[in-house]
């Protein structure tokens, strides 16, 4: 037996810790495991990928995982950019997805009927038990349920070793996820079929497919053009998005003052006055391209006009 | 894992299986070996070692002086000073950090101080690449340090303990570095066996304080001027000590095997008895190489593999013994020697040792991943005569000869 898994999510969601927890718990249960994160200088929100291989035999070869048995996805907005991970899952394998959507909608997002899809609202569970947006504990619980290992008791011990804090809270989240994870079985499995794609071994970041050019075509000295972060839309990192109720907004601009990402904008809108006269006025809006959903605007709004709404 | 399990009559000490990353395994070994002075500056990918050791000292689990220096130059200076006072010392670095402490590296050798340094290997900038390859450790080969290259967390743990015993042996008195793959070992959580009774480690490697050190009752001047009349003679002592340390390294490794049940050797051979093609490499990819060898064997190619574990002192006799009768030797180098005769540092040294050209393959540079199939294909090209010896080929890299 050798189970290969890949875990994708965003910096700060605890992907690496999740693989450490499951690997450690599997070792306690008598398996051999290597948790092989592929990371570098990640910042919060950037896509992160980690590998975990569990085997009954000792693992000496650290093969890159190319066609996993299980893919665990921490953010349903990554399904587009990281479709290649879903494509690479072996037929009959598992996709474990953290999403607030209904199981049917989530299955439609995954878009494969030859794999088992496990849907879990890990964010809601984590918020309930930990008051944090860290979905790794619940996803570890969902993993344990569908794979049948490692045991919950071992996961608890692993939390003690790897985290050493908030063990009870994390374990409560794991247990709840273990109980509520919804499994949509694969409709048709052709076990002899090959996965549609493989996970490339050449990229460390996997922010998406990129054009491979030869060494002669790479910019000399690795110069990057344009030297700007403008093209990098950071809005994809959001879990919640701010929504404004203009009837409550008094245009005090406190949200603009406090927004750390300059994502509050004043947009000109055309309005019709009481006697049919058209005039232009300013209104608060959000630049969802760069809004990371931190919630500071909702926090500082004196009239409660801004609400945070779940997006994944 | 890679260790050759031995069945000896002597009782192997009781151990428990835990799970740790390579970095934390090294920190645990240093704690069990009871380092007395630790000075290190955190640099990716070695940071968790420094953090863990600081935690041990802070929690009172390790009675050591922890010096949070402002940079690596000071880290090496501090451990040189502490070691010259007779303390068991530890530092750890990677990449540019090693570059920053470079000035002090030969001083530790000349003063014959048994400093142990860990190294989660990483490539050099630019462009900035925080990931693993062997550029850093390969750049300190000329200085006189003992250099170990380990394969996994278990071996890194075991080797730190062995290194203290070797370095402090009165026949050696040299600093030693224990290198392991940046990220592929340093950040990979793996199972490993550690002694249940921590005291076993200090029993195996007691602090000897036998080296030349400062002593108030017997004042001396260390690191003094060595005029042209004396410099070479003093340096030659260090050269001879390094050459002679081969024996000590083997002795210590054997005794470690008897007590702990794991032994690694200066080199690890795999299926070399009747091999017509041998794949030579170092570090964590050895597991993939062994898998590629199995595949080659299953197709009737008599393949074998050799892992270099100790590269300074260079175990030339052993390498010549294992590779002397092999037709084709393919060396997978994991860093490049810019403009060198073969481009790969180990390929150059193996070619010199066996006194004929070898097939030089460069891979995993800047931590570009490879798998066993890619190694298998490269070996097949060498086996079928499609590649020529003495030319740098690459696996999994765009650029270079393929």
Automatic annotation (TrEMBL), chain A:
<dbReference type="Pfam" id="PF01558">
    <property type="entry name" value="POR"/>
</dbReference>
<dbReference type="InterPro" id="IPR017896">
    <property type="entry name" value="4Fe4S_Fe-S-bd"/>
</dbReference>
<dbReference type="InterPro" id="IPR017900">
    <property type="entry name" value="4Fe4S_Fe_S_CS"/>
</dbReference>
<protein>
    <recommendedName>
        <fullName>pyruvate synthase</fullName>
        <ecNumber>1.2.7.1</ecNumber>
    </recommendedName>
</protein>
<dbReference type="InterPro" id="IPR002869">
    <property type="entry name" value="Pyrv_flavodox_OxRed_cen"/>
</dbReference>
<dbReference type="InterPro" id="IPR011894">
    <property type="entry name" value="PorC_KorC"/>
</dbReference>
<dbReference type="GO" id="GO:0019164">
    <property type="term" value="F:pyruvate synthase activity"/>
</dbReference>
<dbReference type="InterPro" id="IPR011898">
    <property type="entry name" value="PorD_KorD"/>
</dbReference>
<dbReference type="Pfam" id="PF14697">
    <property type="entry name" value="Fer4_21"/>
</dbReference>
<keyword id="KW-0560">Oxidoreductase</keyword>
<feature type="domain" description="4Fe-4S ferredoxin-type">
    <location>
        <begin position="282"/>
        <end position="311"/>
    </location>
</feature>
<feature type="domain" description="4Fe-4S ferredoxin-type">
    <location>
        <begin position="240"/>
        <end position="269"/>
    </location>
</feature>
<dbReference type="InterPro" id="IPR051626">
    <property type="entry name" value="Oxidoreductase_gamma_subunit"/>
</dbReference>
<dbReference type="InterPro" id="IPR019752">
    <property type="entry name" value="Pyrv/ketoisovalerate_OxRed_cat"/>
</dbReference>
<dbReference type="GO" id="GO:0051539">
    <property type="term" value="F:4 iron, 4 sulfur cluster binding"/>
</dbReference>
TrEMBL record, chain B:
<keyword id="KW-0560">Oxidoreductase</keyword>
<dbReference type="InterPro" id="IPR029061">
    <property type="entry name" value="THDP-binding"/>
</dbReference>
<dbReference type="InterPro" id="IPR009014">
    <property type="entry name" value="Transketo_C/PFOR_II"/>
</dbReference>
<keyword id="KW-0670">Pyruvate</keyword>
<dbReference type="GO" id="GO:0019164">
    <property type="term" value="F:pyruvate synthase activity"/>
</dbReference>
<feature type="domain" description="Pyruvate:ferredoxin oxidoreductase core">
    <location>
        <begin position="275"/>
        <end position="371"/>
    </location>
</feature>
<comment type="subunit">
    <text>Heterodimer composed of an alpha and a beta subunit.</text>
</comment>
<dbReference type="InterPro" id="IPR033412">
    <property type="entry name" value="PFOR_II"/>
</dbReference>
<dbReference type="GO" id="GO:0006979">
    <property type="term" value="P:response to oxidative stress"/>
</dbReference>
<dbReference type="InterPro" id="IPR002880">
    <property type="entry name" value="Pyrv_Fd/Flavodoxin_OxRdtase_N"/>
</dbReference>
<protein>
    <recommendedName>
        <fullName>2-oxoacid oxidoreductase (ferredoxin)</fullName>
        <ecNumber>1.2.7.11</ecNumber>
    </recommendedName>
</protein>
<feature type="domain" description="Pyruvate flavodoxin/ferredoxin oxidoreductase pyrimidine binding">
    <location>
        <begin position="30"/>
        <end position="253"/>
    </location>
</feature>
<dbReference type="Pfam" id="PF17147">
    <property type="entry name" value="PFOR_II"/>
</dbReference>
<dbReference type="InterPro" id="IPR050722">
    <property type="entry name" value="Pyruvate:ferred/Flavod_OxRd"/>
</dbReference>
<dbReference type="Pfam" id="PF01855">
    <property type="entry name" value="POR_N"/>
</dbReference>
<dbReference type="GO" id="GO:0018491">
    <property type="term" value="F:2-oxobutyrate synthase activity"/>
</dbReference>
